[in-house]
Amino acid sequence: MLSLPTVSWCAYPLKSSAAAVSAVVPVNPLLPKAAMSRVSGGVLVLSRGTDFNSPAAKSADSSNVTTALVETESAADTVRRFYAGFNDRHLAALEDVISQNCTYEDLVFPHPFVGRKAILEFFKKFMDLTSRELQFVIDDISEKDESAVGVTWHLEWRGKAFPFSKVCSFYRCNVIDGHRQIIYGRDSVEPTMKPGDAALFAIGAITRLLENFPSLVDVL
Questions:
Q1: pTM score
Q2: Which of 35, 87, 108, 120 could be bridged to 47 by S-S, CB 3.0 to 4.6 A?
Q3: pLDDT, tens digit, 9 for 90 and up, residues 159-181
């Protein structure tokens, strides 16, 4: 019985029957150890500790599905592709990294955008209203987690920083149908008005009010 106790694997169907030889590449060792092997839509996904004599592996072989074992990109690389799609004004590239049921929160807006269709419609509006000269520039990005990514970024116009464009973003990613996609995103944008210490006084006043009138918390 052959098993893979130390590395993780992910199998994709080859698009061309001419490439009949499977290419075997170890996946990033940071991938979750608890990932399960499955067969979905003709795609066999093998994870750490997969038994090649298991029913899942055998069923894939018996259906004559040609598969290749390829490395799954990191969550950070998925997020980088997301920003590259914006900079290229390439909506199809964004569609590829956004899951069907993704939720995106831009805290400038009162309500989140739910579902790929609504999110892409919003992104298209952004692209239609802005010049390609306006570019997203990543300042820092977390690399270690394979499901959660934090990013700080800003906008630049022809290489110069755009005003009030510093943003902290968070993304959660999952592997769906063999490739990693964003399932949740949130942007916290630099405010155009910066009240400074006045914000601290306001927070202090509100908390004291809630201490004296606890029932007011229901209207927050």
A1: 0.66
A2: 35
A3: 999 999 999 999 999 999 888 99
